[in-house]
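To assess whether ligand presence alters the predicted conformation, the chain was also submitted together with zinc ion. Input:
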Amino acid sequence: MERIKVLTVKTEAHRIEVGYMVSEGLKPYFNKEVDTFFVEYSQPVGDVPAGIAVVPFVANVLPIVWLTDSVLELDEIDKSFYESIDDFKQGYIAMYPAAVFGGKVEAQHIVENGYATEGCAMFFSGGADAYSTLVEHREERPMLLSVIGADITLDDKEGILNQTRIMEKGTEDFQLPAPCLISSNFRNFIIGKTLDDLVRIYGEDWWHGFQHGIGLICLSAPIAFCKHLKTVYIASTNVKGHHATCASDGSIDNYVRFGGTQVVHAQFEMSRQQKIALIVDCCKKEGRRIKLRVCWRSKGGYNCCHCEKCYRTIFAIVAEGGDPKEYGFNMTNKDFLDAERIVKKSLYKTYGMVRDKWIEIVNKVKARNMVPDSRMDWVLSLDPFHPCGRIERKFLRITCPIRRLCRTLSKRFAFLLNRTFDFVLGTHARKHSNKFGVLLA
Ligand SMILES: [Zn+2]
């Protein structure tokens, strides 16, 4: 059996580092340039015992251990987390019936780290799902946790600044306890591309299908220990009963425990439209101003107001009688003019769940008959399952594969160009190695 061995668990005031080694067969899945897994916290975590400090690392390698039938060796692990592994593994087994989830965790010491619990925390991105969870649990005054190293990379200074601002604004607006920014190389210490190849047969990529649920949640274990938290909420994206595979799912998250803390996959029963309704209702009743951040396309934490997801959220807000401008969507005239074309094209190419969300929006808008602007009234006749007419469909059927091919070719070309540069620079470095010594060796 292949092995992953935890060598060291080092805890500093705001940082946890896990040193590890992996056996030969697992090396293609781990980043050669990284030999340490780390997590940093803006709040102190210096008193965390090794069995809790190692939880973020363990959660991020467990799916590798399972799918490669490997052994994870370590000295100490938290008892509550250790005992929950088999429970949340069942969620994966049910989600991927064709996969074999083998492997095992061998710990020298399984240590009880229970505590009298109080309070809660929640992961907070500033998106509609997160704000809806915050609105529902605002009386519990959750501590907000934002993660850097997932969607926002560790070197994206503007993104980090913006995420910090978003977290602080949520904290201030809802008068919550001091938030915690969590930064980790949890996406970089492994090689996503080779792991993607490992799981391609299940129709998923590594991050979305296997890592990002428990991998993200378990980064909170040390802070949950320090604050003696009773609950850590993570907002749901999908609705219970959906048929898509996704590593962040109630059937997995709701079974994760560490120390005395229980994880809850929040609002698993609610649709996105119901969440938007909750947010708009709260803002109207309590006079709050909530700026949503939903866009995947724009950097720096703004909404581009020009992609399908932005338009979907804008219309969802309109359907609930809200003004999108008050929720962080400053649409220009061009955004209005392009909306119909972009939404129809996206719906033509998209999958079931996005269409379901648009059906809910269209039905709500129709029921309320409340499109406030004539530039939006095309949505009243939108059919999410047949978004385009015959001529548009023919046009898209021809142009979509051509554009896809162009994108692939341009990526290949960029790759070849990079390799050429590397080769030329490498040759140059070797030629001058005598002159520059170690620096260019
Ligand atoms: Zn956008």
